[in-house]
Amino acid sequence: MRTWRKNWAVYYFIVWSLIAIFAPLLANESKADQWLSPIIPYSATSIDYNNTNSVSPFDDQEVESIYFRHWLGTDQLGRDVAAQLIYGSKTAFIIGLGVVLWAGIIGIVLGGLAGYFGDNSLTVKKRPLVTSLILLPIYLLSITVLIPWEISSVSAPQKWSFAFLFTFLLIGIVMVTSVRSRQQKSNIPIPFDLIVSRIIELIDAIPLLFILVCLSAVIQPSFASTIPIISAVAWTSIAKYTRGEIIKVNNEKYIQSAKALALSNYQIIRKHILPNALAPVLVSLSFGMAAAILVEASLSFLGMGISSEEASWGKLVAAARNNYQAWWLAIFPGLAIFFTLLASNKLSELFRNNS
Asked: What is the extent of the structural domain holding 174?
């Protein structure tokens, strides 16, 4: 506990989280004469037409009073940099937590199953497997070609409802086939560990930025799309770490004793595997959050991140490219990114030392 209290990264994340959560209260366009005035009387999209063309924090500014001064300057359009930093904290917080959640779920599930079952423990009946292999290309063809995605008269909810209905129909066919083949004794082992390992190697072999650029080019940039885009490539490191930890725990004597007592896989995983293997995985999740924030800033810097209406630290740094004399557009968001990544790494070390 003393180690946690002495670590500055813990307090940094607490303050950063509070700023991200209460960003709309800290910076907005409410009038100063209200009972609860914001600290910064500008939102991320507020434009001060009297202070355009990137006004420095130390320049003379045309403002009504010192309360309306742009303490960190403005950008080319006259938007307050401090307000954009606060709303950029909200963006980084949502992206970081969202990616850690989705990439963590995918990585822990796939890495855990690969480490526990290996290549020979997981088996499936022949008939459901053959049925699934036949229906999979039909399903992929249906949702990409047969569904009228380009027909404007068909609304998006109707299109996705049809896709989900078709998915559940195929799942039902596979389940019925599985029930009918209960008497079939021959099972086929699934090399789950081999499949997951090859997928991880394939994703890691392709440059990360190339994958993100390709995915961003075909998906409309927004919060709802940026998180899955980054999660699609961020889960591999978590899966590798989880797989290694579960393989190590799975070889312990008490796990072999639990298997000898004929405990089910669910009982072994819930009572013995997860409590001993997930604690070190928190280290990987902390690194994953730092990587997600950096990737989002990189995508926003390249103009392929979130939508243009949302503030981002990467966008502020990108705005400095148009005016190299506007040093404040690069220094302040750069420091925010640097200290956030440094705090994430410090928390990772703290998790590692206490795991």
From this structure: 123-189
